[in-house]
Amino acid sequence: MKQYSTVILRVGLAFVFLWFGIDKFIHPLIWANWVPDWMAVLIPVPLSTFMIIQGVVEVVVGFLLLIGYQTRFAAFLAVVTILGAELAMFGTGQIEIMVRDAGLLAASLSLVLTGSDCLSMDQPKAVA
Prior knowledge:
This protein has 128 residues and is mainly alpha-helical. It has helices at residues 5-26, 28-32, 37-40, 47-67, 71-89, 95-114. It has one domain (2-114). The radius of gyration is 16 Å and the shape is elongated. The two termini are 24 Å apart.
């Protein structure tokens, strides 16, 4: 059963990233409201456009994790994305969101370290 723990972690993260990524297409303005003013001035495009771009990144990460292709790279993108979210939340008093994201960050870092699993597309094939 232990060999499936990384599969469960990978697929669980995939669904989180797919959910939030797709929601950014549906509600970009709501997501834009979460960006603090100090960060918004650093983003060179309108926030609604930025949220669509972020949604694309999150859907790509989620899809790659779901199928287990380029698992370490996808998990690294997840880490970068979550670090950006943590930075945006810093100092806002949104501790519950930061704690949730810290858990997702730890899970993503775990996948960066472990990489592929027994059901990943990029799992190395055994040599006969």
